[in-house]
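Chain A, query sequence.
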Amino acid sequence: MSQNQTHASHYVAPGGAAHWSGRFSIAPMLDWTDRHCRYFHRMLSKNILLYTEMVTTGAIIHGKGDYLGFNQEEHPLALQLGGSNPADLAHCARLAQERGYDEVNLNVGCPSDRVQNGRFGACLMGEPALVADCVKAMRDVVDIPVTVKTRIGIDDQDSYEFLQAFIEQVSAAGCDTFIVHARKAWLSGLSPKENREIPPLDYPRVYRLKHDYPHLTLAINGGITSLEQAQTHLAELDGVMVGREAYQNPYLLSQVDNLIFGQSMPVLSRHEVVRRMLPYIEQELAKGNYLSHVTRHMLGLFQNLPGARGWRRHLSENATKPGAGIQVVLDAMAKVSEQTEPTEQGSAASKAEPQAGI
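Chain A, predicted structure.
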């Protein structure tokens, strides 16, 4: 195991108790949690577990691009895989370990039609034996953790007994860590966005799972919008995973190291976070990448502060222009007065979806 993997595998709490590094993690979000987004989030917290977007085994094995690239600053970092062929998943898990990832996660939660057509994602909850085979195949070839992200049920298969049977069969194959989105998934009739909002949340069901299987490591996902909510869940479970709120209101993450991981670290101001991003942005520009590829993930940084709209608008209107560089970021940052910026955690973010393509 590499030095990075050893460093990231566990968080050591005050008193020396070791915990899974997923005590607080950022959900894998397609088109959002790319390497630029993850680097930005790492500037806000040193301890959160970051996840890649879901990457299919087919893309890794047959694609021409480098789907496994990341910056070393991103650790601890997990690769989320989409697939259902045990041999292909084992091959990709081995590649992930060789590249230095700290965890491999199998997607058994995405309900989109495209994912179902590929026979992976939430539809796999209906095939626990296959999921078990996939987990065992990966566990047999890697030393890093193999985890599963799942739902509490699918369609009309939404009883607690159904969830129990799934967890028991997959855990028997060697998976001891599950991230559970506390909603069931409808495999037809709802879009992925609707599947994140319409099925009701059932947090007590996930708590019950932990009570019945205390030897398993269980994290919860779905509808978490504040660190206070995260702390409530952590009183019952081993971890929390936050998705849209962390993307839309990223400064939420600035308090995680202190409030969730029990550390005593200075909290960077939002302006200082931007300044610390500048060398990375310059490196990416030097590689020929576009400014907007990085800054689109930073639009929510000044959420709810005077001047936040000016920050977003300036980046949105100028970061996509030919030749856009660091000055665009500096000019956008000047729209928000540094003197009036509080360093404490901001209030809840707007629930509007992030603008695509910015």
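Confidence is low (pLDDT under 50) at residues 1-19, 345-358. The radius of gyration is 20 Å.
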